[in-house]
Amino acid sequence: MTHFDKISNSIERLKQAQKLFQEKVLNNPKFKWYQRAVWVVSISWAAVVTIQSIPYYSAIGIGESAYKHGDYTTAEIKFKEALKECEQYSPSDLRRAKIYNNLAELYRTTYKYGLAEPFYEKSVEIARKLGTSHPELPMSLNNLATLYRDEGRYVESERMFREALSLWDKRIKRDDANRAAILNGTGKILRDQGKYAEAENYYKQALAIKEKTLGTNDADNSVVLNNLGGIYRDQGQYSKSEEYYLRALTIDRAARGENHPYTATDLNNLAGLYREENRINEADALYKQALAIRTRELGADHPATAKTLLGMAELASKKGDFNQAQRYLETAVAIQRKTLGEDHPELATTYNLLGNLYLSQNKIQEACKMQNMCVAIREKKLSPTHPDMGIALIDRGRAEDLDNDAKDSVSDLNRGKQILTDALGVEHPVTKRTLAGIRSPLPKT
Predict the structure, then answer these.
(1) What single string gives the DSSP state of each residue in 207-251?
(2) What's the first-to-final CA gap in the chain, in angstroms?
(3) What is the CA angle 118-122-128, rounded to 5?
(4) Tens of pLDDT along 94-123?
(5) E strand intervals along 267-425
(6) Which end of the chain is more exposed for a tag (fewer CB within 10 A), N or C?
(7) DSSP-based three-state secondary structure for 97
(8) Which fold has domain 134-256?
(9) Would you state the pLDDT for residue 383?
């Protein structure tokens, strides 16, 4: 190879690096706005990208694309390739922090919480070295707080969300979409704990920032609008809930299209609201629209398709069509087993619903079996203090009570009540609704 050829090859490689940098960093919304807890980096550090970074950015790009499309196996392979490339960088290089965060997010999404936490912590450690004036630290704390929320570690999660917000507000621009993400996360953890007034305030702050920075009709606003709709639905403020759900639906239809999965999510949320209001025909029509979109765009075996089937099952049960409800739930179980695995928390939720359906039909043995399967998964995957663990124990206790297994029933009912009230409080709607299903006062242990 001539000297000229070597120079030409170097120039070509540099052009490729510049192209990748342009596509993967400068033109990538993930690097401008915080979205789905994927690491947001500042342009300043990315400006030093060199030719040796090509394999790293290539692996990152392919991995993030796979993650976005639900191909978590490929995403993990590519993220690990990028992690391997990071061995050439210093321990405090932000490229390490980014891949730590991406791997953590992947493991959180797939409920591998034990694998996710160390990577989030490494990302936070690197970010702390930058100092409190950099946005990387509050964003990394935000992501770790999200993990704690998913695990049901509500006190730790809320504390970390508040720390992230405090750091942001001291040194960094307040009207920033990344700050809106922290506000939105804080709103979620407060909503989980039934602190509705405070949660509403944070959601509205997040929405105001997004509308100011992105515009009132930007597609990214629909996420917060749906959250506001949900918080009003939790409190029985159905007209307000409908207003925000409809706003989200209008935005997504205009920005993403009638057949986008986000539009299906909006339809699904609205259908759930109408189901609670006993607007049966409207709920049925919206569920069918959501199911059609998810089946066509995501596939008949996609977990999101299964979620719509769960709502349709609850609607069928409300209409007294228990056979149809059972068919929907059994189809959802088959989808979740195939796509999520035998011990996924979403499968546990379906077992719980199926168990309650059997119980309503006085199929006691079948109900006990389903609730046992639900409890087994949640004991394996969730914190012992997670409210879903409390719900599972209470529902199993209800089935055991009718199965004349009084000793186990008393134990499960009391344990479940303790977990639920400790996590959410006695006034939380979920606590009230779950305890209302117990047919008699809890015996003393």
Answers:
(1) HHHHHHHH-TT-TTHHHHHHHHHHHHHHTT-HHHHHHHHHHHHHH
(2) 84
(3) 140
(4) 899 999 999 999 999 887 889 999 999 999
(5) none
(6) N
(7) helix
(8) 1.25.40
(9) 82
